[in-house]
Hints:
Layout: H1 3-9, E1 33-36, E2 39-42, H2 43-52, E3 60-63, E4 76-79, H3 81-86, H4 97-101, H5 109-120, H6 125-132, H7 136-144
The structure holds zinc ion.
Residues 19, 65, 67, 70, 72, 75 line the site of zinc ion (ZN).
Amino acid sequence: MDAEKRFWTKVSQKSNDECWNWNAGTDGTERGAFSFHGKPERAYRVAWILTNGEIPDGMSVCHKCDNPRCCNPNHLFIGTQADNARDMWNKGRGASPRGEQSGRAKLTEENVLEIRRLSAQGLSSRKIAPRMGVSKTQINEVLRGNIWKHVR
Ligand SMILES: [Zn+2]
């Protein structure tokens, strides 16, 4: 059985809205542990990678549902470590990443400052864009100061 099939046999897959709990071993905390490409990885991170591809450098996979065992890709989003700690979902800011990507997502002043900060850390606009749910072009516009120039 390949790693992907083996992985999903350990997850209680339910409807899209429900939590899909990891039902195999954990790393000693609440988080599921799974050996992926020969190294131990957290189960929910594997769920993200299998569904969406690589996790951008410097980013974390966060839970909207606040359930560390949950591996439902619909309950996961990409954020910074700080986002994780801040628990954006409970503050009502963690709208579905899918929703933000559809249509013309609007940036907030806070997003703009975050974009500049991530860029200063060496992240490319290609990597920042999915995090903010907007296009790479829009990130470049921000970084060039073509838009949101007034935000300091
Ligand atoms: Zn969940």
